[in-house]
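Recap from last week: sequence in, structure out.
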Amino acid sequence: MADQNSPDERSLRERGETVVESSPEDEGVPKESRPMAVLTLMQSIPQGLADVVLNPTPSALPGSGTLQQMANGIAGWGLILALVAVVIGAVTWALGSHSQNLHHAVTGRRTVLVAGGAALMIGAAPILINFFFKAGTGLH
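Predicted structure tokens:
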């Protein structure tokens, strides 16, 4: 098999670099499109290019304070809407139960639960985002 190697493959072997052998699936595929070219290219990329760093700094861009205030305001509106939904859902649930209307009782109960879940998600959103960001920065 050594006598069938191309000059490029021999020079790679002499330098100690990885050469991918042909497999039966490679038959009929031109040599230049085989994985060896990709491996050679990947080995020639300097390691310094692969070191990308991300340090999120909210104050690095203009308008960051306004964006933070807007996020706080939207979260506040969301909590107010969740409170209104809980009240409406509770009233619907109570009236549906009192009038023996199963559909309204179930709809009211579902509204209360969904509004409670929305309030939970609004409150937990910063914690969840920070958790996943820190989990992502811990990957190597």
